[in-house]
Amino acid sequence: MILNEIMVRNYGVYHGTHRADLTPIDGKPIILFGGLNGGGKTTLLDAFQLALYGAKGRLSNRGRLGYRDYLKQCINRNARQGDWAEVQLTFTKVLNGKLTQFMVTRAWREMQKGVTEELSVSLNGTTDPVFTEHWDEIVDTYLPSSISHLFFFDGEQIAALAEQSSAASILGTAVNSLLGLDLVDRLQADLKVFERRKQATTLDATAAIQLKALNDEREANDRLEDALVTQRGELENELGRLRKSLADREADFRSRGGLAFENQQELKAQLNTLSTEKQVYEEQLRQLAAGSLPVALVANEIERAAFQAKQEVKAHQALVMANVLEERDADLLETMKLRSLPASSVDEVAGILATDRATRTEHAHCEMILEADDDVAACLKTLADVTLPEALRQTGALLARMAATEERLARIEADLARVPELDAVADVVAAIRTYKAQIESKTTELDSLIVRLEAAHRRSLELEEAIQRLADEGLEAQQAEDSRLRILKHSKKVRSTLDAFRISVVKRHIATIESLVLESFRSLLRKKHLIHSLTIDPVSFEVVLWQQPGTALPFDRLSAGERQLLATALLWGLARAAGRPIPTIIDTPLGRLDSSHRERLVESYFPNASHQVILLSTDEEIAGGYHAALRPYIGREYALTHDDLIGSTSITPGYFESYETTL
Length: 663
Fold this sequence. Notes:
Shape: elongated
Number of strands: 15
Structural class: alpha/beta
Radius of gyration: 44 Å
Distance between the termini: 28 Å
Helix content: 55-70%
């Protein structure tokens, strides 16, 4: 299936007619819609469901409303009395071996007698009365409404699936629908009704009265259970809307500098710590400046002075040596003369000694500028080679630390400068507090309702057991009723066979589903070796993650982002298991994830989720680097722009203004 175009007219926030071409471009499967919160993204997602399924569609804002009341509510408030509201979906799929274009148009308007709805289905531009009349049955052969949530979903559905308490129920419903086992459920229910009727005819009057009483109580309990399930769904929808509203208010709070407002005390503490740290560095620099550091300004002169002092010490030593040698040589020559040695020998020795003295005293010819002794020379050498380099090293390290500290101080001061006044965020803070209180209240109400629902379910099982026990007693007492007994036994056997069939079907396919979900989860995880395997119980549908054989990984050990990636992998794996070429539509795809987990969805999931992927994003989700990473896979982009003056959202090519220039 390829979605070609969506058209809405006077629907929700869309006044007038608005269209979007959805046909993907080769190699670029993504069609990206960008809109602010309240700008019509969820309304557009509902338009797909409403066009295809009508009253059976999973419509986000329907709540407890009847279908006609919902249609009335969805008419744009600026539409004139009697104007048609309309959703139209055009798609292409193979029909009888030929590529066929379908156009499904669902229109309605409010008249004096209430809301009237019209449905039209066209094939290749021609209205087909048979397809129009039987569309509810036909569309279920293409994409059953019971599994549509595997392909059309939003962030709230992912959040619900990420909770272990609700994951098994949602997963069980999806797997049963995927494998067609909902038909088995209906058949088993019909067989139970049939058995009760047959059982009542075989009992004596007293037993029949008891059985009728039990059946009446069972029916009342079933109605109660159904009502509680409906209430649970309504409460969960209400909680979803409240959480979405809370997320909108929190986004507004952040856009006004709310995070800085919340963290200002911590920022001030950091500012004081860094200011103290800077003062310490400044004091250490002053101490260095009070010592030998200023001499570093004449470091070259110090090196030359050290060299001069060294030379002067050598010259002084040479002069001392020259005087000693001269006295020794004079004594030696005088001794030679006294011993009447030949004059030539005395002269020769005198020449040798004179040459030796000249060689040894060649360093004595140095200009004495510093008149430096050994201590001065040693001090100058230590200053040039050790003291000044160490002072410069310490100074450089302190300056680097102080620069880093000043940079952090500047950032914190900038953050503090952006902290809004209390009056600027008081309204949104109050709204957030109100939504949180409402969510807490609804959550408590939901928990209480779930307890009642579980009690009703337990009572249902008890009544079923009592009915079965009484029926068995009646069967034993009425052996003469062979025909009815045989029918009942065969009915029970059929139900038992259906139970075995259900488990067998699930077991035969569950390994494939586990493999696809595990493969999808691993492709989304940053920690490639976190999960060794994944199993799904074929009866309870509980998901168990294994770090290694025999070592389970509890759900609560996963981070919130990892649980949402697991929920996405469950939907992705089930959609792949369906084996149907169905487009994927995702509303607010990144709303509840941190940056690292967002990257995994952008890089691994969105380009590969299906042959056609429609994303409905806010400006805080697919933006900046995420938008750039997806650009090679984006075939079309649309901006959902709401005009408060005319009370309508328009669909225009392009994306958010801040990113259009980079396209």
